Amino acid sequence: MAFVITSPCESEKAGECVTVCPVDCIEEGPEQFFINPDICIDCGACVSVCPVDAIVEEYELTPEEEPYLEKAEKFFGNI
């Protein structure tokens, strides 16, 4: 499992998540930040610092949020 950054990040892009990630798996994309699902170690450090609560665990994604996992996978070239 990995964490996924969802729609609230699209308008925020604050970036606190990047500085606390111990494995550097979060990168800035053109419209939001993305978490690399292959590198994420599920530590949850990013969740607590996100000012807009945009980060959720992959298994907690709603059907409306599932495209954000696909966007992350595409961003990192995983699909």
From TrEMBL:
<protein>
    <recommendedName>
        <fullName>Ferredoxin</fullName>
    </recommendedName>
</protein>
<keyword id="KW-0411">Iron-sulfur</keyword>
<dbReference type="InterPro" id="IPR017900">
    <property type="entry name" value="4Fe4S_Fe_S_CS"/>
</dbReference>
<dbReference type="InterPro" id="IPR017896">
    <property type="entry name" value="4Fe4S_Fe-S-bd"/>
</dbReference>
<dbReference type="InterPro" id="IPR000813">
    <property type="entry name" value="7Fe_ferredoxin"/>
</dbReference>
<keyword id="KW-0479">Metal-binding</keyword>
<comment type="function">
    <text>Ferredoxins are iron-sulfur proteins that transfer electrons in a wide variety of metabolic reactions.</text>
</comment>
<feature type="domain" description="4Fe-4S ferredoxin-type">
    <location>
        <begin position="31"/>
        <end position="60"/>
    </location>
</feature>
<keyword id="KW-0813">Transport</keyword>
<dbReference type="InterPro" id="IPR050294">
    <property type="entry name" value="RnfB_subfamily"/>
</dbReference>
<keyword id="KW-0249">Electron transport</keyword>
<keyword id="KW-0004">4Fe-4S</keyword>
<keyword id="KW-0408">Iron</keyword>
<dbReference type="Pfam" id="PF00037">
    <property type="entry name" value="Fer4"/>
</dbReference>
